[in-house]
Write a structure and sequence with these properties.
Elements: H1 2-19, H2 21-58, H3 107-113, E1 140-143, E2 147-152, E3 155-159, H4 161-165, E4 168-180, E5 183-194, E6 203-218, E7 221-235, H5 245-250, H6 255-263, E8 272-287, E9 292-304, E10 311-314, E11 317-320, H7 329-335, E12 340-353, E13 357-366, H8 373-376, E14 378-383, H9 386-407
Antiparallel strand pairs: 1-2, 1-14, 2-3, 3-4, 4-5, 5-6, 6-7, 7-8, 8-9, 9-12, 10-11, 12-13, 13-14
Length: 413
């Protein structure tokens, strides 16, 4: 009942609202005003849109790139690995067998890499005493038998220091004038002088000129040959009693020899002699490396003179000194010379050329006693020269690598 009354009341009010003419007029007016407003707003929107379209029409259209549509990529089919073991063999890898690249060298490997002279290649120009070769520019050699210095390229001057200790002045020179491939030619010259002293009236002058030729047959084997012409002049007589013990023993001079010579000497004696000497030498050397080499040498010396030996004529009495009165071959050659004499010698020696020291020793034979020792025994030291500087640079580089290896290769760049 209450629901029915509520519906009736609502419907009645709705009927009155639609039936009132005032309300219709207001409503229509409101609708019309709203329509006018909407028309005005639409007109304004249209004008704004027209202005925007005009502005857009005046602006230049942007250039758009012509982009072609992407083609659909074909996805390759999945590749199935072959199942046949013969087509794709299986590789096995054991990490325990791999070696690390950071591992340093062992002491044995470092020692093996050390650039010792026994491992360096041989130097064909190393020997200078029996060849046409010379010291390098700036290289110095000091030895028991001979000492030399390279004053210019392929030019050296030298001397024998032991002779200076005995009062004998001496100098020698060599110039390697020609070098054509394996052939070298050199000119040589030497001068020796013994000046008289109050204790010794003997004076000696010796000078000679000659040449050498060297030829490398193969890389480590060479042959050499040379010759010299010299003149020897002697004046006065030696005071044999003033000679030292080592010289007497080396020259095999006995007390009987001294007595015989002394008895043949008078104060008025004036002894002089001139001699021409021709000498020749042949040699060959085989170089195993820069340190080890073997040397074979042979030499011949022929002397000629027109002067007689020690002869004295005092108070119309002749006094001659015969060769059989002197047992020393050296003083026999000096005091009782033959018109012509020939002497020769041969030797075989091994030379070890270390970094500074050069040692040579061997065996030999000569008609003049112990003369073979001069070419088969020697001890010298060398410094300087381009070849030695290069060897020192190689050794310094090895020392640096040895130090870096001990520190670890990656610790220092």
């Amino acid at each position: 009942m209450i629901t029915f009354l509520s519906l009736f009341f609502i419907s009645e009010h709705l009927f009155l609202a639609y039936a009132d003419p005032t309300e219709d007029t207001d409503t229509s007016t409101t609708i019309e005003s709203s329509d006018d407003n909407s028309d005005e707003s639409s007109n304004e929107d249209q004008s704004d849109n027209t202005a925007q379209e005009t502005e857009q029409t005046n602006e230049p259209e942007p250039v758009r790139p012509n982009i072609e549509p992407l083609q659909q990529l074909e996805v390759p089919e999945e590749v199935t690995p072959p199942t046949d073991q013969t087509d794709s063999p299986t590789l096995s890898f054991n990490p325990d067998d791999a070696q690390s690249l950071d591992t340093t060298l062992t002491k044995e490997q470092i020692k093996w890499l050390q650039p010792t002279r026994g491992k360096l290649p041989q130097n064909p120009y190393q020997h200078i005493d029996f060849t046409a070769y010379t010291l390098e520019w700036g290289e110095v050699q000091a030895g028991l038998n001979r000492s030399s210095v390279g004053i210019l390229p392929r030019t050296q001057v030298g001397t024998q220091i032991p002779l200076w200790l005995l009062g004998v002045q001496n100098v020698n020179a060599k110039v390697n004038a020609v070098r054509l491939g394996p052939v070298d030619l050199a000119l040589t010259g030497n001068y020796i002088k013994l000046a008289p002293t109050p204790e010794q009236s003997l004076s000696i002058q010796y000078y000679g000129v000659g040449g050498y030729g060297s030829f490398r047959i193969v890389d480590n084997w060479s042959i050499h040959a040379g010759g010299q012409y010299a003149e020897l002049n002697l004046n006065g007589l030696p005071n044999l009693n003033a000679l030292s013990g080592p010289i007497k023993r080396f020259s095999q001079l006995t007390d009987e020899d001294i007595a015989n010579v002394t008895n043949a000497i008078e104060e008025s004696i004036d002894y002089s002699r001139s001699e021409k000497i021709f000498s020749a030498k042949v040699a060959t050397d085989v170089r195993l490396n820069r340190r080890d080499s073997f040397i074979v040498q042979g030499n011949m010396m022929r002397s000629e003179t027109t002067d007689s030996g020690l002869s004295v004529e005092a108070q119309d009495v002749g006094l001659d000194l015969e060769s059989d009165q002197i047992s020393s071959p050296l003083f026999q050659y000096l005091l009782v010379p033959q018109e012509s004499s020939t002497n020769y010698g041969v030797s075989l020696a091994y030379q070890a050329s270390f970094k500074r020291a050069y040692l040579r020793f061997g065996v030999g034979y000569s008609t003049i006693p112990y003369a073979w020792l001069l070419q088969s025994l020697d001890l010298t030291w060398r410094w300087g020269g381009q070849t030695k500087r290069r060897a020192n640079d190689i050794e310094s580089f090895w020392e640096l690598n040895k130090k870096l290896n001990s520190q670890g290769a990656d610790t220092k760049k």
